[in-house]
């Protein structure tokens, strides 16, 4: 539906869709080990959570989209708490505090130019699901390495941490 607007958007490949809890940038091996240890602690205090996709939106706004996303409705609060705990652990480990508050969303695409932006904005503001997406269970946290190339990013899983709290 959104892609039919014909806007100049680099849409995320379906196999690359994910919820980014925290972007770390370039990290070295000691930092990676520290991140793995703290992510394991946070995951052990997190229970598997049923998540439901909700509205579509855009950053910085629907009227001036640069990033098109889908938000999380049901399950948002536990996800936010987990993200806050992870942020606290990262800051204690010496990482720079994230400037923006966590927004529970999955990026759908990045707007590359103004071509047919008006049509995209119209579709975003009028968007309605053709049928409600199925809820899904978030039951782990994955540390990914992003490898950028001209054809788009590749996400390599480095470590996976199961949510084990009751």
Can you put this structure into words, describing what you see?
The N and C termini lie far apart (39 Å). It is globular and about 45 Å long. The chain has helices at residues 29-44, 76-92, 117-125; strands spanning 9-11, 49-51, 53-60, 65-72, 105-111, 136-138, 140-147, 154-162. The strands form three sheets. A four-stranded antiparallel beta sheet has the order 1-5-4-3, with helices on one face. The chain has a two-stranded antiparallel sheet with strand order 2-6. A two-stranded antiparallel sheet has the order 7-8. It has one domain: Cyclic Phosphodiesterase, Chain: A, CATH 3.90.1140.10. The protein has 166 residues and is α+β, with helices and mostly antiparallel strands. Helices cover 25% and strands 30% of the residues. β3 and β4 form a beta hairpin. The model has no long low-confidence stretch (mean pLDDT 94).
- Low-pLDDT runs: none
- Rounded to the nearest angstrom, the radius of gyration is 17 Å
Percentage of residues in DSSP E strands: 25-35%
Going by helix content, strand content and strand pairing, the class is alpha+beta
Task: Write the CATH architecture name.
Answer: Alpha-Beta Complex
Oligomer: single chain
> How many E-type strands?
8
H/E topology pattern: EHEEEHEHEEE
User: How many helix segments?
Assistant: 3
Question: Separation of termini?
Answer: 39 Å
Largest beta sheet, briefly? 4 strands, antiparallel
């Amino acid at each position: 539906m959104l892609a039919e607007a014909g806007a100049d958007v680099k849409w995320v490949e379906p196999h690359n869709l994910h919820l980014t809890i925290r972007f770390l940038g370039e990290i070295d091996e000691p930092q990676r080990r520290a991140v793995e240890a703290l992510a394991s602690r946070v995951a052990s205090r997190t229970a598997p959570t049923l998540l439901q996709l909700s509205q579509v939106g855009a950053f910085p706004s629907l009227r001036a989209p640069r990033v098109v996303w889908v938000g999380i409705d049901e399950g948002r609060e536990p996800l936010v708490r987990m993200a806050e705990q992870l942020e606290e652990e990262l800051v204690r480990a010496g990482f720079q505090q994230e400037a923006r508050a966590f927004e529970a969303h999955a990026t759908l695409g990045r707007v590359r130019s103004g071509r047919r932006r008006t049509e995209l904005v119209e579709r975003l503001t009028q968007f309605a699901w053709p049928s409600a997406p199925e809820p899904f269970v978030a039951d782990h946290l994955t540390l990914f390495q992003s490898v950028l190339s001209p054809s788009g990013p590749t996400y390599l899983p480095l470590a996976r941490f199961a949510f084990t709290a009751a």
